[in-house]
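Let's sit down with a protein and look at its sequence and fold side by side. We need material for that, and I hope you will provide a protein of your own picking. Once you have written the record down, we can walk along the chain together.

***
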Amino acid sequence: MISCCWYHFASSPWGHTHSHGNDSYNGSITTPFGTIEKAVSVVQPGQTIYIRGGTYNLLNTITISRNGSATALISMYAYPGEIPVLNFSGQVLDGNNRGILHKGSYWHFRGIRITGAGDNGMRIEGGSHNIVEHCSFYRNRDSGLQLDNGASDNTVRNCDSYFNADPPDYADADGFAPKLTVGSGNYFYGCRAWRNCDDGWDGYMRGADDPSTVLENCWAFDNGYLEDGTDPGASANGNGFKMGGSDDKTLKHNFTLKRCLAFKNKAKGFDQNNNKGSMILYNCTGHGNLMANYRITQELAAGKILVVKNCAELGGTAEIGSFADQARNSWMTPFIVAAGDFISLDATAAYGPRKSDGTLPDISYMHLAAGSDLIDGGVDVGLPYAGLAPDLGYFETGLTSISEINTSLKVNLYPNPAGERVVLRFSLPGEGRCMIRLFNITGRYIKTLADHDAEPGEQSLSLDLSDLAEGLYLYQIKLDDLQVAVGRFVKKD
């Protein structure tokens, strides 16, 4: 463990004043370093930098070039129970003044807030296999988090990006920006982007072609406006999910969106722009986006596909090209969508704080109302569902009490249907407390099947199901407080 803190952090979790921190110290909890830069300069693969809570008023970009490895990540964590805020508001507005410029690979960032940078709050430039988790990027003067220069295979999980704006033209500050020269394999899960002056997500290409990006369980709302809700002008695009585009209108960005939600954006909710790459949308919902909830109408490059299935919208503004592979979307026969299909159209709770484990807040907005023909109206696209068939749109009725539907971790379960016992095989990304919890198909918790300390790597668990009645069940795999997978199986006697 490496610890760093500054003089203005007054008390420790044990109730006594701890050391002020000095870069000549050894970096222990009792004699911590004084700067993050010092900790970054000496940390080794497998070690963790803990940053104490409070506000760090910083002027210089924190540049990270050191690498961890697949078996020994380097971690930078908020100290447990504390919130460190890296405040770069003293930086001048400048394209080189990022908060954190991360060029390394195999790092895990967790629980850090970054604000006020003269450009991006955080920029991952060329790094790969990094995890950015439970972090917030706000009031930066370009995109909150940008991935560029070949950055690939990074995971951004349960993060927020909001109130980012770039005066004077307000043309570029997105929430999350996997764009320009970004690489492939980047994955966003459980993230929110709101009231950024440009777009929630922006996949615009310039200098790279044909990368692939996946978003799952992400929300983009109220983008295209300043923090106070005013419109900064025509240069502020205001799309929820901009899936690509390029200066010459020829470049490709392959975008997959699973269970994503776009609402109240100044322009489009789900926007092709002029992207020529493949776009796949499963179980997405759009509502109240001023220009269109969906606009994907331009022909794609040869060999590229547009797939839109189980998606929903309210307002009649889904514009989908005739070349699309569509199935069971709410604007298709036999569905007729009205406000009464939804429990609530009040999105206020979506702006609220995350739950204690960092996951998205529970909201009733755009949940399907009992009796809606959108319930069980979809086709199986490989996402977990309850009932006879998937629902249309973002929320799946019956899974709301374990609403984090994360399928990023590959799990093998056999036999299925199961008998007296079932075997789960999966690979954990890190060490920690591994818990397997069981729910019935309505989402009601039944019991915990396993709870133990686990090492990273392959896991094989034989679980006793002898006391379960026949039926359909859901399992949840958690590593510490983070859910890493949800799946379902059938029990037969």
Remarks:
- The first helix runs from residue 36 to 42.
- Residues 6-19, 400-407 have pLDDT under 50 and may be disordered.
